[in-house]
Write a structure and sequence with these properties.
By secondary structure, the protein is α+β, with helices and mostly antiparallel strands. The protein has 3 helices and 8 strands, in the order ββααββββαββ. The protein has one domain: Multidrug-efflux Transporter 1 Regulator Bmrr, Chain A (Alpha-Beta Barrel), CATH 3.20.80.10. The mean pLDDT is about 95.
């Protein structure tokens, strides 16, 4: 079973998330792995990585606070004033603080841990906000397994 190895506060600049939005009907076998495959096959991350100042991590952004319908976005965070390339959509985020958890374990066990992270942040004395959360696929934490074959997937929420 995966474990939370770290929970901490991180400053976050005003940002524009640029990506593509999906919903529950886009799931295959209960997850969005097929959509991530499309991103790599179509070179969509390559297009976003050309944006000046884009942050290097790939992001799975989630919310169920908009009309009560679950949204799952794949994309990247860019500077707040970044132009949105054709074929992509965006969500703007204000400057703030994030509560971040590192989930350590086998890659497959690390997914769908947003509720565990939310609860861990509360246990640590943070006040997580529930409108948006995200998975941050950081290189090398997520891309280079350790000797046991485990990786770290970051989960984050805005906090008060």
């Amino acid at each position: 079973m995966s474990e939370i190895t770290k929970a901490f506060k991180e400053a976050f600049p005003a940002s524009r998330f640029i990506g593509k939005k999906y919903n529950d009907s886009d799931r295959v076998d209960g997850n969005f792995g097929a959509k991530w495959g499309e991103w790599f096959e179509n070179g969509w991350f390559d297009a976003l990585e050309k944006i000046e100042g884009v942050l290097p991590d790939y992001i799975g952004l989630m919310s169920d606070a908009h009309d009560g319908k679950f949204e799952y976005w794949v994309g990247m965070f860019a500077p707040a004033n970044a132009a949105v390339p054709e074929g992509f959509a965006s969500v703007d985020f204000p400057e703030g603080s994030l509560g971040v958890c590192y989930i350590y374990g086998n890659e497959a066990e690390n997914y769908m841990q947003e509720e565990r992270c939310f609860n861990k942040l509360k246990e640590e004395g943070f006040e997580p906000l529930s409108e948006w959360c995200f998975e941050r696929y950081n290189c090398p934490r997520f891309t280079e397994p350790d000797a046991e074959g485990n990786v770290i997937l970051d989960y984050g929420n805005y906090i008060k």
